[in-house]
Amino acid sequence: MNFLSDTTAPAHPALLESLTRANSGYAASYGNDVISAELTDRLSDIFSTDLDFVLTTSGTASNALALSVLCPPHGMILCHDEAHIHRDERGAPEFFTGGAKLLPLAGEHAKIDVSALENALNQWPQDFVHAPPPRALSISNLNESGCAYSPTELKALTQRAKSEALNIHFDGARFANALVSSGESAASMSWQSGADVLCLGATKNGALGAEAILLLGDARRHLPELQARQKRSGHMGPKARYIAAQMLAWLRDDLWLDLARTANAAAAEVADTLRNAGADVIHPVDGNEVFVRLDEELAAQLRSAGVGFYSWPDGSARFVACWSTTDDEIKALEQALNG
Amino acid sequence: MNFLSDTTAPAHPALLESLTRANSGYAASYGNDVISAELTDRLSDIFSTDLDFVLTTSGTASNALALSVLCPPHGMILCHDEAHIHRDERGAPEFFTGGAKLLPLAGEHAKIDVSALENALNQWPQDFVHAPPPRALSISNLNESGCAYSPTELKALTQRAKSEALNIHFDGARFANALVSSGESAASMSWQSGADVLCLGATKNGALGAEAILLLGDARRHLPELQARQKRSGHMGPKARYIAAQMLAWLRDDLWLDLARTANAAAAEVADTLRNAGADVIHPVDGNEVFVRLDEELAAQLRSAGVGFYSWPDGSARFVACWSTTDDEIKALEQALNG
Amino acid sequence: MNFLSDTTAPAHPALLESLTRANSGYAASYGNDVISAELTDRLSDIFSTDLDFVLTTSGTASNALALSVLCPPHGMILCHDEAHIHRDERGAPEFFTGGAKLLPLAGEHAKIDVSALENALNQWPQDFVHAPPPRALSISNLNESGCAYSPTELKALTQRAKSEALNIHFDGARFANALVSSGESAASMSWQSGADVLCLGATKNGALGAEAILLLGDARRHLPELQARQKRSGHMGPKARYIAAQMLAWLRDDLWLDLARTANAAAAEVADTLRNAGADVIHPVDGNEVFVRLDEELAAQLRSAGVGFYSWPDGSARFVACWSTTDDEIKALEQALNG
Amino acid sequence: MNFLSDTTAPAHPALLESLTRANSGYAASYGNDVISAELTDRLSDIFSTDLDFVLTTSGTASNALALSVLCPPHGMILCHDEAHIHRDERGAPEFFTGGAKLLPLAGEHAKIDVSALENALNQWPQDFVHAPPPRALSISNLNESGCAYSPTELKALTQRAKSEALNIHFDGARFANALVSSGESAASMSWQSGADVLCLGATKNGALGAEAILLLGDARRHLPELQARQKRSGHMGPKARYIAAQMLAWLRDDLWLDLARTANAAAAEVADTLRNAGADVIHPVDGNEVFVRLDEELAAQLRSAGVGFYSWPDGSARFVACWSTTDDEIKALEQALNG
Description:
Four copies of one chain form a homotetramer.
Chain A: H1 13-22, H2 34-47, E1 51-56, H3 59-70, E2 76-80, H4 84-87, H5 92-97, E3 101-105, H6 114-123, E4 134-140, H7 151-162, E5 167-172, H8 175-182, E6 197-201, E7 211-216, H9 223-232, H10 241-251, H11 255-276, E8 280-281, E9 289-293, H12 296-304, E10 310-311, E11 317-320, H13 327-337
Parallel strand pairs in A: 2-3, 2-4, 4-5, 5-6
Antiparallel strand pairs in A: 1-7, 6-7, 8-9, 9-11, 10-11
């Protein structure tokens, strides 16, 4: 009964099999292998556009690398106050950008409020030498409260940001979960909604460790700088074929979407189970994460029954479902709730 | 007939099997898993000392992270002019340290000359506010010309450096190759020879991507800062069990040493083969790398026969043997040399 | 009728005379001159404690240098949302620290609310590797709304911060204004109220360009690192005698306090004058700055009469009085207000 | 008898008078004052071209700021092994660029050898992702051995560097000394010889503290970024009129050239005096610096007579003449030499 995090889940067997298949003979290192080349075509198909990408093994690295080509050291990145890049990456964006500032914005359910964005853009102008100007907007989808932005919501933010020439970063550590929840296409939820760069994460959804930074549209011009920064930060994998092999297996035959659907469905059941036990589900469950308020007694009861979940800074409890969450685990949760 | 680099080789099957075994059920993320815990004991045994470590998937990351806790931004790192950290990591040490300076030192066969170290320490004093003082010495063993330092050679350098309170970093991307070549113990070639931190690399010797930064002796006090920097740089793997599982399989039953012995023996044969064909082997072959001067005709002949090797900046040619290099490959090289 | 900023005011003649006196013969460079030595004694007398210091010509440099020895790159600096270091220094603290994060806190009249500090310390723990821990608290006194903290208010913040081992930085760009307003001693308003480092500014109060970073108590141990960073950032003045000479003349015979009293008294008159004209003074006038809400008509009337003042991001108007503000200027303001 | 450094000399009275004149009434801060505006015209006249500039109070700051807009963090700056930016600025270029690498080049008399440049450009290619590519070339003129490059020598270096698209930085801390020594025009010794940016120093030649970073030709596009970095590093002087006033007085009526001529002439006499006493002058005396080899006895004799000079890392002794060096001082040196 582990609902701690999707990073505690195992990898899907198909990805391990892909590793084994990739482990034959010599392969060019540092991303110049044939599997990486095949991945280019696959990603272009899925996103219905030409694109460039680099691979890493960590979502933190992907976000920080992406932001480092979108925002100069003397600029500012706007994000939600709950954003993973602000709260949970130990200052990685500040490190990779060379000291850019992150400005946390408010909004219900960890969604950036358009008026908060508007207010920030008004308070921090582009041409005032004394203050860092906003240069990038970062949006997490699925976000840190487990909620999905719709394309309409995304466009409202990105169009306003683009009117000030900001670059747009999407943190897609749980992109697949947002995608299947919304029923939108990958294109619709990325470049058609304004993303210049999408960090597409597989690690939380069945991989051992595989993340892709996708450069979309005009942002493809950043590829050489991105590669330089990837190398310089130790994220250009010497044997990159093993990351590419994971990603390729994950994308094959819509496996990534199937895994996300499984996780989302499990989360919906977890939410129902918790609701039925009297817990207050505090955010829409658009993906694989459930946030609830538990009274202390119930929380203690769950912990003593061995149910794993995290206490959140706002006092709520987070339950995360994974591609591997089973019906038995949910039933065990139900039993633990019923004492 | 690929002698390009040990990073083009596949992983050893035992490591893939270890991954598969590790892929069962939930595991604590970010290095708090039981496999990582088991690895602590194994490394302590092998190095005959208590130690702390963190894991990464890249030698560049390991070196730069290690140096970032050994040298402040306003200090200087001494290394050989041929050092990987100086030549081949796109300024990673400068990035991770926040702008420390690397001072390249001279010496035959990519070994730092004691007098070059002496000269640098005299020219760059510790207490002159206008210049960055030397704060760390970095030594590669096996080094970038394929040569091994003996414990005596290491101590001559590290003792002089320690007399000025420098911290000592060993780049052990090919540590196993140096170890089996010298017949020394892991302890003798690391902390007993002055290393505060050893970057122990498995990637070039049978892993998919696994590197350990070992904190030795007093340097163990750097662990919290090292972990903070590991996280901040995106190198704290969310599913670290898969790196630990590789490392554990690699160290089990002396597999790492066996693989290195195989590679070194293959390199010795490659060297003989090249020598027999009239090439000039320009550095001692202490590990799995062979550097030769080829006349242009012979180089062209090899290339047209499909033999892979790198042209080095000094005009020589580098041939690298791997744990997976076969007798057939060496025979094929011989045939290609013979036209 | 210039009420734009105290940085638009001329320097006091006594400081220019001091420059002329200092301009005789040779003097050791980079702060090793006899005037700098004399300044040490003078500052120790005024602050009733042994201390160390370095001089710069810019408040931004002083703040950022101070913070860079108080907070590691992977830590966090807490400050008010209106703080100059957050709003008006183009990310200087982020640059000098190597990418530390600034966390803006709320509070009326630009004073950090104790509960906002408490909340931040609870949300951002010291031992969570994934997030930057708070390592420094920065307090501006006089603050950015022209208000002074009392020693009691300062201690409430600094004692709570010190309970988590945070380092304490005071931005004293207008320290003299706060001092004369409160009637406290320099010691009471600095180290006795918890400051580890005070950035003492003379530039806004009669100097051409002179700022001192004072290391107090245990923080004196940071001197060598501070000097290294001062040099590295180009703030170790080659001919530092000219900065020291300004600072010495400024401190002599309480000139600094007299100038601040003059500016504060002028600000009080400006506030009365604006109030009498129907403007709403929105913050206590504890120093030389007056913030008012003006209706648009009155604002336009003032501008057309040539009265200089700044529009503030919150829609208010800021009027700054200086040591050189004259009665005639205030009368002219009155006339402009009366149309 | 102080020949330690031109930074120990006083300022020329004309500059102090200019400060006093500038100290009247209000002036726009941060470089928007009328004196700074007047300086634009004056500099354009002198350099026979349109240009942009910012002012600082430190040569280290000027060099590092200039380099930070000419070289990305993942690039490399080529300079002489003796360059001030490499040896004497505590890693300021590394700090301001965000961790670019400096590659020291060899050459007699601290002049970069064309073949050393050639070799570096060959060894460090532009398109190899694993190593930082050369992106800037920095040349000191007058250089650190007191020697001047001729326009022909400069062009040989800059044209080769520009063929690889490197940006060109001239460190002109003693530019005036090189100029009067060569008899060339300011244009000839700067942009016509390939400089994109010239750091023009007045501090060592009569100012209290005044340096200008000149953006020339296409490099003028860097102005907004340069100003952002100037602010961010604390080098945008709040009361910049006092720096501009110095610079303007220094340039008026060729004062800067007259002061340099005086210093150079004094240096020539110092060199003769030392030669006559049997010292070996080891570099051409093209400016105001004299480097000699002294036997230990003579060095001790000079020190005991109170003659100030620096011991150089290579064992030589440096004597610096200033605009204020008098005949009496040189005579006193002569007497000290004669025992």
